């Protein structure tokens, strides 16, 4: 089928609700770390669908698994057992802190469930009166009502107020401020070990360890949101491993099925035991098709040599960015292949110029570029991206 770029863009404007400002290209296919538009232009993809396509586009093993499962069984609902769901849950539990898993369709849905489970645990163990939640400046946890309530930016929250009550924000990486907010009325603390949308800011070890101690002291459920930074993105299987701190709940989503819609809530038995039959559910979540894909993705990413390559390539990417020595670059930071570059002008301008030169990147704030390539990226492809970005910065 021939795709006409002008027709697609025109029909989108007419028929699709206008909640996204899209780039004026129509992407048609992908292969590895490259995307191709309807006009035949090739792009080096250093955003991977917002940190989703961890194994790149059209990965042969994922494609084969999806095709085979689609020809066998796609959906039966959670009223029946299916092997792919149980096998994925087993992988996640045996390779993490968790005792149980609840599967969802998205990251926002995973956050909604995590908040709900934390409140149920508090009520089951303490009765009413322990329902407040502490979140942090710079946080982003999703756009549904509960997830939005713990997302920091007022521009996201205020148009939809009133939201979930009892949410308090402390400055990120400020343990003293968190200590002042966490107390007997707190049921949950939610934090990203590495903030994504908020500018690619890693938590300090002292901050996460201090939160763990405060949560233990007040019997508060500690939730780590690893939707963007988890499952290999930082060069470790889970971002929390770098800190030696275990949460009570962890949310996952973006890379788990390499682009198919899935999320997961990992939780301890203590939390899981507070939620009974019928108290949570999802029609589509954990279906055999998406779980089969997720199992393949997990097995690829969890290999020690794969994670070592991610860590090494992340160090190379940061080093090469610093070596540009551009006056436009104010700071480079990150973890693994999740990198933020602070620049001296609106990020949108540089993103548009990079796209025009064949490189796809995204922002993480008004003046921060975000680089999150597929985890399979090579040293040569990093060099190509640096060459394009360097030229864009020089011309800015």
From TrEMBL:
UniProt KW keywords: Amino-acid biosynthesis, Aminotransferase, Arginine biosynthesis, Cytoplasm, Pyridoxal phosphate, Transferase
Modification sites for N6-(pyridoxal phosphate)lysine: 254
Residues holding pyridoxal 5'-phosphate: 107-108, 140, 225-228, 283
Domain of life: Bacteria
EC assignment: 2.6.1.11
UniProt-listed CDD domains: OAT_like
GO biological process: L-arginine biosynthetic process
Residues at which N(2)-acetyl-L-ornithine binds: 143, 282
Listed cofactors: pyridoxal 5'-phosphate
Pathway(s) annotated for this protein in UniProt: Amino-acid biosynthesis; L-arginine biosynthesis; N(2)-acetyl-L-ornithine from L-glutamate: step 4/4
Catalytic activity: N(2)-acetyl-L-ornithine + 2-oxoglutarate = N-acetyl-L-glutamate 5-semialdehyde + L-glutamate
Cellular localization per UniProt: Cytoplasm
Recorded GO MF terms: identical protein binding; N2-acetyl-L-ornithine:2-oxoglutarate 5-aminotransferase activity; pyridoxal phosphate binding
Gene3D superfamilies reported in the protein's UniProt record: Aspartate Aminotransferase, domain 1 (3.90.1150.10), Type I PLP-dependent aspartate aminotransferase-like (Major domain) (3.40.640.10)
Enzyme class: transferase
UniProt remark on cofactor binding: Binds 1 pyridoxal phosphate per subunit.
Any single Pfam family the record assigns to this protein: Aminotran_3
Cellular component terms per the entry's GO annotation: cytoplasm
Subunit structure: Homodimer.
Family recorded in the similarity comment: Belongs to the class-III pyridoxal-phosphate-dependent aminotransferase family. ArgD subfamily.
Additional facts recorded: May also have succinyldiaminopimelate aminotransferase activity, thus carrying out the corresponding step in lysine biosynthesis.
Protein name stated in the entry: Acetylornithine aminotransferase
Protein source organism: Candidatus Promineifilum breve
Organism placement in taxonomy: Bacteria, Bacillati, Chloroflexota, Ardenticatenia, Candidatus Promineifilales
């Amino acid at each position: 089928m021939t795709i006409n770029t002008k027709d697609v863009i025109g029909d989108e404007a007419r028929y699709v609700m206008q909640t996204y400002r899209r780039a004026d290209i129509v992407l048609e296919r992908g292969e590895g770390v490259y995307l191709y538009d309807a006009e035949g232009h090739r792009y080096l993809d250093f955003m991977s669908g917002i940190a989703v396509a961890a194994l790149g586009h059209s990965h042969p093993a994922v494609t084969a698994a999806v095709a085979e499962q689609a020809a066998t069984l796609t959906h039966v609902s959670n009223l029946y057992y299916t092997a792919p769901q149980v096998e994925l849950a087993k992988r996640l539990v045996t390779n993490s802190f968790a005792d149980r898993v609840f599967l969802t369709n998205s990251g926002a849905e995973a956050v909604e469930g995590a908040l709900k489970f934390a409140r149920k645990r508090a009520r089951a163990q303490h009765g009413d009166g322990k329902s407040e939640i502490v979140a942090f400046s710079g946080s982003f946890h999703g756009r549904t009502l509960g997830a939005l309530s713990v997302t920091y930016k007022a521009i996201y929250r205020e148009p939809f107020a009133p939201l979930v009550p009892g949410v308090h924000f402390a400055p990120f990486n400020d343990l003293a401020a968190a200590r002042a907010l966490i107390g007997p009325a707190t049921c949950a603390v939610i934090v990203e070990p590495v903030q994504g949308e908020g500018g690619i800011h890693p938590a300090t070890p002292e901050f996460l360890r201090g939160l763990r101690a405060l949560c233990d002291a007040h019997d508060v459920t500690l939730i780590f949101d690893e939707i963007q930074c988890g499952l290999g993105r930082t060069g470790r299987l889970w971002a929390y491993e770098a800190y030696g701190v275990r949460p009570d709940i962890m949310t996952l989503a973006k890379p788990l099925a390499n682009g198919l819609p899935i999320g997961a809530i990992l939780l301890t038995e203590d939390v899981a035991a507070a939620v009974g039959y019928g108290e949570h559910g999802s029609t589509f979540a954990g279906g055999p098709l998406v779980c089969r894909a997720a199992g393949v993705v997990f097995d690829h990413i969890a290999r020690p040599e794969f994670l070592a390559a991610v860590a090494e390539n992340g160090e190379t990417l940061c080093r090469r960015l610093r070596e540009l020595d551009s006056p436009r670059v104010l700071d480079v930071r990150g973890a693994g292949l999740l990198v933020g570059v602070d620049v001296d002008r609106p990020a949108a301008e540089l993103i548009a110029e990079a796209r025009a030169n064949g490189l796809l990147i995204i922002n993480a704030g008004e003046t921060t570029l975000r680089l999150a390539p597929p985890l399979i990226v090579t040293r040569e492809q990093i060099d190509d991206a640096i060459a394009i970005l360097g030229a864009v910065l020089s011309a800015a």
